[in-house]
Amino acid sequence: MSDETTPLDAAHAAMMAAPEDGAARLRFYERLADSELFLLLEKEAEDDSIAPQLFPLEGGQVVLVFDRESRLGDFLGAPAHFAALSGRQAVKLLAGQGIGLGVNLGVEGSEIVLPADAVDWLAQTLEHAPQQAEERPDELLPPGNVPEALLAGLDTKLATAAGLAKLVYLAGVRYESGRQTHMLAFVDAVPGAENALATAASEALTFSGLEAGEMDVAFFAANDPIAARLARVGLRFELPEPPKSEMTEITPPGMDPDEPPILR
């Protein structure tokens, strides 16, 4: 991947190179949801609300987003108001309103227009929350035949969870009930990050394209005896160190995932 190529560019290229490959299409949508995007606005954002600029196309109205601020500037050729937000926030704002999403227009090899029904589908897919259950593992096993698509998806997704857990293991698990599956175990997760980590793992499974895939997510303290057992049999994923912040900035609308902007 060159310096000029973004993860979204690479996912788009892979999708276009294999139009019949459903897994490649899912990976593009996942990268879109995870990317920071710059949304073109009609006017400057006010407090916690934004007014995206609408463009009429043959298939209906669309708003424009770019995965680099410089790309938005190159497309317009002039200064413009914009909001920085994640792809998942963008589709959540637009869902159900009959508005499509123009992505990286003017960027050769990366531009695409998602119709309103594709925006709605992605928003609905991202709303699928993992179900909570309490079941103590009876036996831990080395991970079995895990599809490469899931391993790659987990590796990419966990890279976005910098600093949210000390260790992560994938292992086979058998419960006292006799049920057997795979378990993604987070060790010493940051308090309050459990839901975000479980959602990330669930999305990695969803966007892997496995129709009958199943994977449990669990959280353990480092001093729990099961953590040592996980270290012996589990496949370890490395979580990157969190970026060091050297200055405090006021967060613009759209940058706080817990407080998305209001669409006007």
UniProtKB/TrEMBL annotation:
Residues 13-120 form the SseB protein N-terminal domain. Residues 242-264 are annotated as: Disordered. This is SseB protein N-terminal domain-containing protein.
